[in-house]
Amino acid sequence: MKRQVGIEALAIAVPRRYVDIEELARARGVDPAKYTAGLGAKEMAVADPGEDAVALAATAAARLLRTHAVDPAKLGMLVVGTETGVDHSKPVASHVQGLLKLPNNMRVYDAQHACYGGTAGLMAAVEWIASGSAGGRSALVVCSDIARYGLNTAGEPTQGGGAVALLVSEQPDLLAVDVGLNGSCSMDVYDFWRPIGRREAVVDGHYSIKCYTDALSGAYRNWRERALAHEVVRWGNTLPGEQLARILYHVPFCKMARKAHTQLRLCDLEDAPNAPPSTPEAREEKAKSNASYTTQVASSLDLSARVGNVYTASLYLALAGLLNAEGAALAGQRVGLLSYGSGCASEFYSGVVGDKAAKRMAATNVEAVMAKRERVSVEEYERIMRLPYEAPEPLSPEPGEFRLSEIRDHKRLYVQGTAS
To answer: How far is CA 343 from CA 113, 121, 273, in A?
Structure first.
């Protein structure tokens, strides 16, 4: 019997504060619709220096282990996907291992390739388990990032931060991955980068969107070729992409998911055998179907609209949003997932939603995590953004959560909140 492998459970962590996106727009003298309708944003997470990639990753991972009663002794791999590392040598994963007191007999490392790093870690874990090398053990994959562009910049309303922790095992209650059907596409491009020593990223926005859609086309066509060969999808009355119940995309901003979905549909419309004659303009217009977007994509974007860009965690925040909203309805159905990382690498893969997805998500209770956040004024957001990264404020973390307390002799020291 073929071994099933995939995501058993997940948990999220977000900064304790957020700013309302309409309020930010008004403060910048911009029509709020430019941010709400133009970007699809509602709120934007505001991370302070104490909420770095380590603290967010450790909080999400601890929440996952606690909520789902995971025995740390049964973990054999820990991978953190991040592009917001805190050291050029010591990985975020090493910090997380120590903070959570995880076993020593583990494979522990970071995966970096812009926003693709989390998927790189997930696929390493899936294939490690599927190969039999795991010996019955599970893997912990954490995607943790802070998207920062700076005050009064073009990218300001697309900032955010947070982490998603994934438990990967042979009990894929959330999502059983179609192992071996992955489609990949990578290119050497300069669409987005963060030079050593910079807190803020540098991005060529319009070019980056083109790189995203080009890489998506290559990865999706690669997946579709394999999926057709295995009869997971077929050419017929409906396009192959339409045979997926839902499709999740990397979400640097919510409107990008619409652009991505249009591009995916265009790939099918351009490649369909025996299709009636059509002009490129007519195909593009059909690709923009609101009905398809509403059915296949829209329900995954609620959390993304309320948190903002989370780089490596963006795709998996969309997965959390989808399963939180539709876990029960999607049980047994196949979904597609598109990961993109600037620079660039893209991967399209698919999986079947587990019968216990709704139960797992109810236990995860992402709404409770979101409800604990504090809305702050634009003035307070600006104050936090101006704080030096090496001097975190002396705030106490909530019970079970982690926070950077100080940097002493080049060592980063963290504290965990305890019940009073």
So the answer is: 7, 17, 33
**Per-residue pLDDT tens digits for 56-112:** 999 999 999 999 999 999 999 999 999 999 999 999 999 999 999 999 999 999 999
Distances (CA, A) of 370 to 30, 331, 357, 373, 380: 27, 25, 20, 6, 19
83 as an active site residue: the answer is yes
The residue from 43, 115, 211, 261 that is catalytic is 115
* DSSP for residue 399: B
The full set of domains in the chain, from first to last, is 6-416 (3.40.47.10)
C-alpha triplet 139, 366, 118: angle, nearest 5°: 35
DSSP assignment of 208-243 equals HHHHHHHHHHHHHHHHHHHHHHTTSS-SSSS-GGGG
Amino acid at 237: N
| CA 306 to each of CA 39, 41, 254, 321: distance values in angstroms, whole numbers, following the listed order | 12, 7, 10, 11
Specify whether 211 is catalytic: no
Token pair listed for 194: 């963060």
pTM of the model: 0.97
> Distance between CA 10 and CA 45 in Å, rounded?
20
Q: What is the DSSP letter of 408?
A: E
Buried b (16+ CB within 10 A) or exposed e, 348-373: bbbbbbbebbbebbeebebeebbeeb
Rounded CA separation 262/287 (Å):
5
The structure tokens listed for 329 are 């309805």
Candidates 8, 43, 51, 83; catalytic one: 83
How would you class 172 by CB atoms within 10 Å of its CB: exposed for 0-12, middle for 13-18, buried for 19 or more?
buried
Nearest to 28 by CA among 146, 203, 150, 147: 150
